[in-house]
Specification:
This protein has 122 residues and is of the alpha/beta class. 28% of the residues lie in helices and 22% in strands. It has a single domain, classed as Rossmann fold.
Length: 122
């Protein structure tokens, strides 16, 4: 099964190109009318369509509200408030290049930090 990604609105538009450049299908929430959608709406859409969510929103890291086993993956980028698009894209690219990790992502939460990725199940 190929992982398909849903990019949250808190990430730069250029993140879509990073995902595509790594060979994955990607949809941006802004392109499907979810620019201002609540997290719960984005989560429901991702569940229904089988997307792995990529976001900088730590609310998605709360496994009580978003149990990883109910999703095709949750990826939360740990970003400083001052993160630039270049910084975010570099962090995302480093994560996506780890193919052996990506195949494990369905049903898990990944917290992505510079130099470290933590995987968590429900």
């Amino acid at each position: 099964m190929t992982v398909r990604f849903l990019i949250d609105a808190d990430l730069p538009r250029s993140a879509n190109g990073i995902v595509r450049a790594n060979g994955y299908d990607v949809v941006d929430v802004r392109d499907i009318g979810f620019r201002s959608a609540k997290d719960s709406e984005i989560a429901s859409y991702a569940q229904y369509e089988g997307f792995c969510i990529i976001t900088g929103d730590y609310d998605f890291a709360d496994i009580r509200n978003y149990p990883p086993h109910q999703y095709n993956g949750l990826v939360v980028l740990s970003l400083p408030r001052t993160a630039t698009a270049k910084y975010i894209n570099k962090l995302l690219d480093g994560f996506l290049k780890q193919r052996e990790l990506i195949v494990q992502i369905p049903g898990k939460l990944a917290i992505v930090e510079p130099g470290r990725i933590r995987l968590r199940e429900s």
